Amino acid sequence: MTTQTDNEAVKSNDPHDINFNTEQFQLIDDDDDELLSHYISKIEEITEKCISAINTVGTSEDAGLAVTNAGLVSSHSATSSSSTCCKSRSEAESTSPLIKGENRCSTNPPSSIDHSNKKTAGRPGSKDSTDTACKQVSSDQTGMASSKVGQTDKTDTSSSVVSTNKTERPRVIIDQTGSISPLEDFRPGYLWVSDLTKQHWCEQQLLYSFTVPGVLVEDPVMTKGSNLHLQRELAVHDVVKVDITSSEDIWAVKMLNLLNSVQAFLNGSPLAREVPIFGAPFQEDVFVVGLIDELRFDLETYAIGLSELKTRLSRTKPSKSQEKQHRLQVMLYRKLFDDLVKGNVTKDVIARHLRLKLTKELGEGVQGELGKSGLSCKTLDSLLDVVFGRMAAVTCIVETSVEYVHQESGQSFLHQDVVYDEEELKKLYRHYLGFWRGQRAVEGVDIEDAWKCQRCDYKSVCEWREVKAAECARKNKLGRR
């Protein structure tokens, strides 16, 4: 479900692309009000275009993929001169193909930050703050169709590698005075499920992943985990590239991936992998996107089960903190899927949060892939009608579980069922949104989870640790009196 992305800067006719004028700016006198006003207006115009482009394109993961009967389709810029696709497998081996976006980084891209370079890593434009170093072809953050959509969702947040400099204090954005919220600053438009699971591990660490400058470097250990996900994905469908020309195209491809997965169940297939999912849980007006590892369909009872794949270096049981993190992830996936089945997601919610024009005609490449799936939809509006109709034809998820696989051998060694508790999920979700909305200050780990700090890449600059250390020192001092 991955596709290669062409990152070359090319001139595009996309209205959201920014084309800067090459006119030469000249020195002006302080009293030359007319010329000064002219240049100020130019700067304001360029700034507006930059903001519009960021809000529209979102992150590098936004490129979408679409599924066709010919194979999994991965989208790439229409201006790109070449496209690639995986070789077809025999029809006996393959099931319904899945289409994905191209500019997306792997969900669990390992990242190492080198502060000798002042470029900033982990900004909203890079999926899950680590997407800029990606090598996967699907795009999840911007759109949901990435082959490892939100591959970040597939990664244990405790395993990234970052080199930090004690002298460089990260900037903390949280405040309650009306300043821009972390949601708008880091994730304009929507959150990834992986953002919330990382927050569950350590909220302070999540914040530093956005604010500590550095350069992302691939981690071989993380790469192995991504490859295992890819192997399983390709066992179910092939990868095909599709040209995209707009944000609407990107999301259409993601919708097509979801649609083909569900249609495969209705056609008698028992398995779907890398299924895009989205919604606005608990009527909180915050859009969330994710990518489900695996859905299984019982052809006799029509029951659907959800399974999340986690890879581990050793055949050891995960810690309690990791189990809780993984449990939150599968519960969020289930909530998003069930909301689509129940009709709790509307076109208005999608258009408003993703800033899409649902009636805009889709590009020729996307329409071509839709045609291969037997659809004559020319707009996202009509495609969503089909998606909502198909989702209403299946049942809600009845089983959730996590599968742990040994990274070196690729063998499964542990399977844990997850008990779904919607009230618990709602309480956690609303608490986490308090951070994203800027309604409360960032929180680090509790004292009993301080062991996480020893594995954290930001421990040398962590303000939360300093505060807690000072608290402990005061308590100890009082205890001796």
UniProtKB/TrEMBL annotation:
UniProt-listed Gene3D superfamilies: 3.90.320.10
Comp. bias regions, Polar residues: 104-114, 131-150
Keywords: Exonuclease, Hydrolase, Nuclease
A cellular-component GO term for this protein: nucleus
An individual GO BP term: interstrand cross-link repair
Keyword hit for Chaperone: no
Keyword Nuclease: yes
Record field: compositional bias (Low complexity): 74-87
Recorded GO MF terms: single-stranded DNA 5'-3' DNA exonuclease activity
Annotated region (Disordered), positions in chain: 74-167
Domain of life of the source: Eukaryota
InterPro entries registered for this protein in UniProt: EXOV (IPR019190), PDDEXK-like_dom_sf (IPR011604)
PANTHER family in UniProt: EXONUCLEASE V
Family: Belongs to the EXO5 family.
Name recorded for this polypeptide: Exonuclease V
